[in-house]
Amino acid sequence: MRTNRMRAGKACLLASLLPLPFAVVQAQGLALPAGARLQLDGGRLEAAGGDVLVDGTLVLGAGELRGVGALRIAAGASADFGSGTATLTGDWENRGTFLAGSSRVELRDGPAAVSAVLGTNLFANLSLVSGSGKRYRLESGLTQAVGGNLQIQGLGPAIQVDVTAPGSVAYLNLLPGGSQTIANVGVSDVHATGQHLAPTQTNQGGSGNDSGWFGGGVVIPRTPVPALSPGLQLLLAMGLVLIAMRRRGLAAVSRG
């Protein structure tokens, strides 16, 4: 396995250096300029707590982003996460193109007591975990969707999920077929618009306005009633007409 190691105050990796298959790149943050492409393949970028700023093209493949502060995808930039993993302690912000693949995005405890999830995102797997009661803020007015596993867990004090503009709702959509691992969470101004979230639990410290969450029991999904074909609808209508006519006839006989 080939190992490349780079140490710098702020790394700016240009396209001429890439791809970096099976590499370990150590740098205090990364600024990927417009027109540049970073392709990790099976490599790993250790950001040492610095931010990753994407103005070009980032391709993880099966690679890893570790020790990231904030990750920001600028307008016009793209990030294809493939089957990779990214672990952050700061904000996640997507203003460009984010392709989740089967990847996993993890937000964890770090120097910041509050982290935000900004922009509209469709995650494959999203994990929000804290042992300190950290607050995760979803951008008000926007939707965060998850197609795979949604993990929200407070390992000590209850983890808090709220919004960037208090009183203005944000939306969290666990898509059909997705799974949830949720425990010890408080929710404020966040509506679940897909699967019902944490249906057997209660709001732990949130202010409420938590439509689609909690409820104290298992939510039984509605079973759709199959629609009748046009032919069956016509037969049903004719049958109802005949029943009505028969009732009228019987009523007339009884009056006579």
Question: Care to describe what's here?
Answer:
The longest helix has 26 residues. The chain has about 260 residues and is mainly beta. The chain is about 10% helix and about 35% strand. It has two domains: about 210 residues; about 30 residues.
List the helices and strands and how they pair.
Layout: E1 24-26, E2 30-32, E3 37-39, E4 44-46, E5 52-54, E6 57-59, E7 64-68, E8 71-73, E9 78-80, E10 85-88, E11 92-94, E12 97-99, E13 104-107, E14 114-118, E15 121-123, E16 125-130, E17 135-138, E18 143-146, E19 149-154, E20 159-163, E21 170-174, E22 179-183, E23 185-187, E24 190-192, H1 230-255
Parallel strand pairs: 1-4, 2-5, 3-6, 4-7, 5-8, 6-9, 7-10, 8-11, 9-12, 10-13, 11-14, 13-16, 14-17, 15-18, 16-19, 17-20, 18-21, 19-22, 20-23, 21-24
Order of strands across the main sheet: 1-4-7-10-13-16-19-22
Low-confidence stretches: 1-17, 217-225
Give the topology string: H per helix, E per strand.
EEEEEEEEEEEEEEEEEEEEEEEEH
Mean pLDDT: 85
List how many beta strands DSSP finds: 24
| Quaternary structure classification | single chain
- The number of helices is 1
Radius of gyration: 26 Å
Helices and strands: which structural class?
mainly beta
Based on CA inertia axes, which overall geometry fits? elongated
Helix content: 10-25%
Strand percentage lies at 35-45%
Number of domains: 2
Largest sheet features: 8 strands, parallel
Intertermini distance? 101 Å
Task: Identify the notable features of this structure and list them briefly.
mainly beta; about 260 residues; 24 strands; eight-stranded parallel sheet; 1 helix; disordered N terminus
